[in-house]
Specification:
CATH topology of the largest domain: TIM Barrel
Number of helices: 18
Shape: elongated
Number of strands: 13
Helix content: 40-55%
Strand order of the largest sheet: 1-13-12-11-6-4-3-2
CATH architecture of the largest domain: Alpha-Beta Barrel
Number of domains: 3
Distance between the termini: 30 Å
Largest sheet: 8 strands, parallel
Radius of gyration: 26 Å
Low-confidence stretches: none
């Protein structure tokens, strides 16, 4: 079965690839409804659909815990895609009635703007991810993003206490989504998100890639002293050896190799170098049984490189905007995979005014990241916030003022900005429906 996804996924991929090659990006934001999405199509080359926005705007509203029905986001995508196809048909009908001169003078709008949607943590295991991917493709999505948080414990990326799944499980999710897309013959764009920069826990220690970032007790007499095993090894080196030259040599060998080892391999390597260290990651597990971790940029790069085996784009979630951190991630990825496309969340959760950047630096943030390979950049919740802002202003003003406030704040502003929805009957397609009835 061919769906709009089969066309739109190709369109999206090559849009992003061209941006990557030129050092530019497709920048967009989360569409709260059809009106926003159709308006965005006039100006933007992609549309984002946010799970956070829908979690606050669904039948059972609440925070972004991905506890809404898994079909919620695909259903929203489907509504937007149907609206896009309707407005495309409406435009085609209008142009059929134009003279050649009128057509030449009237810009054609590409309403079929590709959508990247939030698949959260996949809503379960392998079969759940496959069913979710199938629902997204049937809805008409062009791309989805899947994060490496634990389903059932998922939180918004800017909340504390996040729990990662082990790297192996995230790879199963990504491969499941890719398999389902391949079965359906769709070139679905997959964005792999990692929250390993600021997560607090991981569900298991089954994957050795995760080992160097899991915290453990390093002194049996001091259970509150927690370190990763690479740091525990550094501590042991300083305590074992006296000669400074020998310390520097052993430390160099240890630091160059330990973060690419499992705990077992690291202990064997330490013994070969002439020292041993105490490390117990079981003693400090949470009440739920999760291991504590110390997330950082290196961890994000390692996970990103692994995820790139299956994903088209990589997204590192960060607690605040930083050109330096973004560059660190991009450089870490591109030194190994120079053609890997990246994504960046220009989150409204960031306090941009308190970011330490000047207004000039904020204005250049998107172009600066684009040159690093961040070919898709998006303001996740902008639709939510712009809706809230305008509703607050108009509700306040109309509550105590006369009809002139509608005229001043909305109707005249719509006319000045040439907003299509000013003529709402025409925008809704009344002319097209009349023609269909007449046929």
């Amino acid at each position: 079965m061919t769906t709009p996804s089969h066309y739109l996924s190709k369109k999206l991929y090559w849009t992003l690839r061209r941006n990557f090659n030129k050092g530019t990006c497709s920048n967009t934001y989360g569409a709260l409804d059809n009106i926003q999405a159709i308006t965005m199509s006039k100006h933007l080359s992609s549309i984002y659909v946010s799970g956070w926005q829908l979690s606050s705007n669904c039948d059972e509203p609440g925070p972004d815990f991905a506890d809404y029905p898994s079909i919620t986001v695909p259903d929203h995508v489907n509504k937007i895609v149907k609206a896009q196809m309707f407005h495309d048909r409406k435009q085609n009908e209008e142009r059929c009635r134009m003279t050649k001169e009128e057509k030449d003078a009237t810009k054609r709008i590409d309403y079929l703007t590709p959508i990247i949607a939030d698949a959260d943590a996949g809503f379960g295991g392998v079969t759940s991810v496959m069913k979710l991917t199938k629902a997204f493709i049937e809805a008409g999505v062009a791309g989805i993003h899947i994060e490496d948080q634990k389903a059932g414990a998922k939180k918004c990326g800017h909340l504390g206490g996040k729990v990662l799944v082990n790297t192996r499980e995230q790879m199963q999710r990504l491969y499941s989504a890719r398999l389902q897309a391949d079965v359906m013959g769709c070139d679905l764009v997959i964005v792999a998100r990692t929250d390993s920069f600021s997560a607090s826990f991981i569900d298991t220690n089954i994957d050795s890639l995760d080992h160097p970032y899991i915290l453990g007790v390093v002194d049996a007499n001091n259970p509150d002293l927690l370190m990763t095993f690479p740091v525990a090894g550094q501590k042991a080196i300083m305590e074992t050896f006296i000669n400074q030259t020998r310390i520097e040599k052993i430390m160099g060998l240890w630091n160059a190799n330990c973060t690419n080892m499992s705990l077992k391999q690291a202990k064997e390597f330490a013994h070969e170098l002439g020292f041993d260290f105490y490390f117990d990651w079981e003693a400090c597990r949470s009440d739920e049984g999760y291991y504590k971790i110390e997330g950082n940029l290196e961890y994000c790069v390692k996970r990103g490189l692994k995820f790139s085996e299956c994903a088209d784009l990589l997204w590192m979630e960060t607690p605040k905007p930083s050109v330096e951190v973004a560059k660190g991630f991009a450089d870490g990825i591109h030194v190994v995979k120079p053609h890997q496309m990246l994504a960046y969340n220009l989150s409204p959760s960031f306090n941009w005014d308190a970011s330490g950047m000047s207004e000039q630096e904020i204005s250049q943030f998107i172009p600066a990241l684009s040159k690093m390979g961040y070919s898709w950049q998006f303001i996740t919740l902008a639709g939510f916030h712009l809706n809230s802002l305008m509703c607050e202003i108009f509700s306040r003003e109309i509550s105590s003022q006369n009809m002139m406030k509608y005229v001043e704040l909305i109707q005249r502003a719509e006319r000045k900005e040439e907003v299509d929805q000013l003529k709402h009957q025409k925008w809704s397609g009344v002319d097209l429906r009349d023609k269909e009835v007449e046929m």
